[in-house]
Structures are given as C-alpha cells and as structure tokens.
Write a structure and sequence with these properties.
CATH architecture of the largest domain: Alpha-Beta Complex
CATH class of the largest domain: Alpha Beta
Strand content: 5-15%
Structural class: alpha/beta
Order of helices and strands: EEHEHHHEEHEEHHEHEHHHH
Number of strands: 9
Mean pLDDT: 95
Oligomer: single chain
Number of domains: 2
Shape: globular
Largest sheet: 6 strands, mixed
Strand order of the largest sheet: 1-2-3-4-6-9
CATH topology of the largest domain: 2-enoyl-CoA Hydratase, Chain A, domain 1
Distance between the termini: 60 Å
C-alpha cells in the first residue's frame, strides 16, 4: 500500500505536525488528492480545541517543489482545459489552502527543510513563523515559467517584506537562500538541517505552554491589525481582553506571579 502523501500526527502538549510526504517528487502541491488532504488536515486542525500549535514541513530533502511542471506541460490535472476552467480549478483547489490558513487561530510554524519553490514557497509564507535549515531556498519563481502566483503568494510576500522588496523578488523570480531570507526577515532563524525539527518542536512547545485562549486571541488580533481601523481594532482588543480577564488561565497566572513575589 502506498504511503499517504500528507501525514499528520499530534505530539505531546497539543502540537500538530503536518508533513508533505512525496519526497521522490519533492512534495508537489498541485495534485488534487494532495491538496484535498492538506485542506482536510487543516480544517480538522481548526476544529480541534486541544491543538495549541501546528508545524508544517516536508519529507526528504525538499519542503515543496510547488506545482508539478510535468502536469503543466501535459496540461493535465488542475492545469487542464480552457482558461476559465483552469481559473476555476485554482479557485476550487490550491486557493483553498490560503483561505483555511488565514482562518486558523493556532500559531503555524513552517519548518523549511529544503527548497520551497513556487506554491511551496507560498505555503511557507502563509505560516505565522518560519524556521529554515541551512539548505532551505525560497523561490517565488513563477515569472520564470511565464506564470503568476496563482495561490496568493504575492499577498503574503508583500505583507512580510513590503512592496518594493516583494516586487524585486517576484519580478526577477530570484531564489532566496536561507542566509538572505534571515537577513530580509523572511525567516525567524536558520539552523543546521539535522537540528531543524528539534528547534521547531522547542518553539512550538514554548508557545503551547502559554494560555491557549490568549494565544489564539493574540493571533486573531495580530491578523486584524493590518486590515482594521484603529477604533475597530481597539474595540476588538477590549472585547477579547474582557474575556481573557475571566479565564482560569489568567487567574492561575496571577496567583503564581503574586506567590512568587511573596516568596
């Protein structure tokens, strides 16, 4: 029996691990079955109240090669049909990934273990935090194939790096090695390849130890900040803070802090 192309497991402390698992093809994300598996896994993660953080990585030596260029050349799968049919295929398949990623309230960490090209790069950009191995490369390389980012990568890249740098990278289709990605602020840290997953798990554990409700609300507020008027944003802050003040986590944290000061 063939091994699933998308693996998911839950580790201690409510840490989920999603692994793109087609290393022989460098973990492409254009097959409908793979996209459906990714979307289904993310939807289940969104509905799991016990999850506190999610890590996304790739099996083998690549994070993801993005779209399958052989299918593009043959015009099969999501690349088949007239332009209106291809547009519909993008909407109904790969574009569902950024939609559900933006809806997730738990922190998502990309452990980029190797090349993340095209749509694979975009998936990494959709995550809240990115850790890269020394072998990682980020490639918004669509123009080199006469294409655009069909899954919204430019939306994420512009918000991460600003318009000018995002434009330079996208117009040139220039791959970004791990050290430059760190310098640009595209990744949080660069670590040895053999230490990447341990580092990602340590980061996820640190997050998971915090109040899960407070972390989820903090992520929601951070996401809102880019698209809200200040008065609307402050109203949301007040509403969420009022809920947080009534939580058991807040009460326990206050008690621990006061007891520590007394001792």
């Amino acid at each position: 029996m063939n091994e699933p192309k998308v693996l998911f497991e839950i580790h201690e402390e409510g840490i989920g691990l999603l692994t793109l698992n087609d290393p022989a093809r460098r973990n492409p994300v254009s097959d409908r079955s793979i996209i459906e598996a990714i979307v289904s896994t993310l939807q289940n993660a969104a509905l799991n109240p016990d999850l506190r953080a999610l890590i996304i990585t790739g099996a083998g030596t690549s994070f993801s090669s993005g779209g399958d260029v052989r299918e593009m050349q043959a015009k099969t799968g999501m690349f088949a049909g007239e332009p209106h049919q291809v547009a519909r295929a993008y909407t109904d398949s790969v574009q569902r990934i950024p939609v559900i990623m933006e809806q997730l309230t738990i922190p998502v960490i990309a452990a980029v273990n190797g090349p993340a090209m095209g749509a694979g790069c975009d998936i990494a950009l959709m995550c809240d935090l990115r850790l890269a191995s020394t072998t990682a490369v980020f490639g918004e390389v669509f123009v080199k194939l006469g294409l655009v980012s069909g899954d919204g990568g430019g939306w994420f890249l512009t918000r991460l790096l600003g318009y000018q740098r995002a434009a330079e990278i996208s117009f040139r289709g220039r791959p970004i090695p791990a050290d430059e990605a760190l310098e640009l602020g595209l990744v949080l840290e660069v670590v040895r390849e053999d230490a990447l997953m341990d580092h990602a798990m340590d980061l996820a554990r640190d997050i998971a130890q915090k109040s899960p409700a407070a972390v989820r609300m903090t992520k929601q507020l951070l996401k809102m900040a880019a698209r809200s008027e200040l008065k609307d944003y402050l109203a949301a802050c007040a509403a969420m803070q009022a809920v947080a003040h009534e939580s058991a986590d807040h009460t326990a944290a206050l008690t621990a802090l006061i007891d520590a000061k007394r001792s």
